[in-house]
Design a protein that fits this description.
Length: 279
């Protein structure tokens, strides 16, 4: 399959390597060409060039304005691909708007945000939450199989619901992370080694993915970004827009995250409530 791809950042680079390893030809447009160094791709000078004549389009960029640019470029192609797999986490309402624009050119839009971070992208084990037409999703399966774990791929319903699922997930990421940091910090100040506390809780009812995976790095003072504070705050903003009701726990988590440098990994929020190496 020939795949036009936009985005070669922390997530996109791993996705691209797995697509190539699965035998797909990847034509990439990257705003920062240096990010394409060493990737198994053909570089394109524009989004339209990357998409022209492709069997499938894939995009993994940052937010709604970036996806609008991707769709503009795709629709400028002389022969756009029949399906766009949009893996960015953006506002569901924007996805629905862009899906209508794509449909007018005969392109099916799938919102397929992912979870698993750069490690999952590199390993090809991402969870994928899909919104859109089932037939279009079936056409995208060979690419999605290369980038993620089929057992962790879910068709959530029409366009936009894949994004709703991802935003629900990231609300929990934020609230569980901040609550875990608060609890471990409180135990630490009371004399309990936080590494021991982590081991205890992992075998008890307070266990979580964040505790098992993120906090192994947090306790070492490692806040190298996999998922930045900036991007988690962006997702919490989109999640807030899903409903008119105030989300008190997510808002409290966002208030804490805003006190952390935006380019650090979101686990750095633990600095606010814990004594960690490197501070």
């Amino acid at each position: 399959m020939r795949i036009g791809f936009v985005g070669a950042g922390l997530m996109g680079s791993g996705m691209i390597r797995n697509l190539a390893d699965a035998g797909h030809e990847v034509v990439l447009h990257a705003r920062t060409s240096s990010r394409a160094a060493g990737l198994p791709v053909t570089l394109a000078g524009s989004i339209a060039e990357a998409m022209d004549g492709a069997d499938l389009a894939c995009s993994c960029v940052t937010d709604s304005p970036d996806v609008r640019v991707v769709v503009d470029g795709l629709l400028d192609a002389a022969s756009p691909p029949p399906v766009l797999v949009e893996m960015s986490t953006i506002a569901p309402a924007v996805a629905r708007e862009l899906a209508e624009r794509c449909a007018a050119r005969g392109v099916a839009y799938l919102d397929c945000p992912v979870s698993g971070g750069p490690t999952g992208a590199a390993a090809g084990t991402l969870a994928v939450m899909c919104g859109g037409d089932a037939d279009a999703l079936a056409r995208a399966v060979p690419a999605l199989d290369a980038m993620g774990d089929p057992e962790k791929r879910f068709h959530c319903g029409p366009v936009g619901l894949g994004l709703v699922a991802k935003l629900v997930n990231n609300m929990l990421v934020a609230t569980i992370t901040t609550a875990t940091a608060e609890a471990l910090g409180r135990g630490q100040r009371a004399g309990l080694d936080p590494a021991l506390a982590r081991e205890i809780v992992m075998r008890s009812s307070g266990d979580s993915w964040q505790l098992r995976n993120l906090f192994a790095r947090v306790l070492e003072g490692d806040h190298v970004p996999g998922f930045t504070v900036r991007n988690l705050l962006k997702d919490l903003g989109h999640a807030r827009d899903l409903d008119d009701r105030v989300p008190p726990l997510a808002d409290a988590a966002a208030d804490l995250l805003r006190q952390v440098p935006a380019d650090l990994d979101y686990g750095a929020v633990a600095r606010l409530t814990m004594d960690l190496p490197g501070e």
